[in-house]
Amino acid sequence: MSLPPLTERDYQNLSATLSGLHAQNAMSLERLDGFFAALVAGPEPIRPGECLPAILGDAFDDEDAFPSAKSLENFVSLLLRHWLEIADTLRAEQEFHPWLEADEDGTVHGREWARGFCDGMQLLNEDWGLLFDDEEEAPALVPIMALAFEQEPDDALHDFVAGADDEQRQAWVASLSTSVAAIHRFFVGIRQQLEDEAGDDA
């Protein structure tokens, strides 16, 4: 599908719409970007139309969340175009740039993006286990998991993130682009292997 890339104004409109639905637990644009990165890079590409409840939160069931059917249609179009931009970038093996927002002090934390990526992983949780169990490729998940759970680490992550300083956090943020590319390559390889095996059995 060929659709025009989002303009700066398109991104502003998308961000404003999501911000307006924040009280109904809709994702922020940063979290949405991480979510879409997981949908595209993961085991099976999932289109945004299949995930509107996760994106919109309680607004999904609120008939008054959008002023008109046209405004909802425009919103879904922006979602699809953003998803396609990520998909095209990874498919072409171009550098992926996560959408990361700075706080009032100008610091980029990456937590919301990483949490969005983890939201995406939940949709095909068992299949993501293939990456978690791969000793060689699993380190690609480290920056994402560390940022997502730094403030509430489980037993497996506690010791790893407890001593993190600002320099380490920024290193994790800087690694997100290469992590997504590595994850995408991993699952492309898995799918190709399965296709090859199916062809051999035919």
Report the major sheet: none
Question: Care to count the β-strands?
Answer: 0
Please, what is the CATH homologous superfamily? Answer: YgfB uncharacterised protein family PF03695
In CATH, the topology is named: Four Helix Bundle (Hemerythrin (Met), subunit A)
Overall pLDDT level: 91
State the helix count. 9
Multimerization state: single chain
CATH architecture identity: Up-down Bundle
Beta-strand level of the residues, as a percent range?
A: under 5%
Give a quick rundown of the structure:
By secondary structure, this protein is an all-alpha fold. The protein has 9 helices and no strands. Helix 2 packs across helix 4, helix 2 runs parallel beside helix 9 and helix 7 crosses helix 9.
Protein described:
This protein is an all-alpha fold and 202 residues long. It has a single domain (8-201), classed as Four Helix Bundle (Hemerythrin (Met), subunit A) (Up-down Bundle). Helices cover 62% and strands 0% of the residues. The protein is built from 9 helices and no strands. The radius of gyration is 18 Å and the shape is globular. The two termini are 30 Å apart.
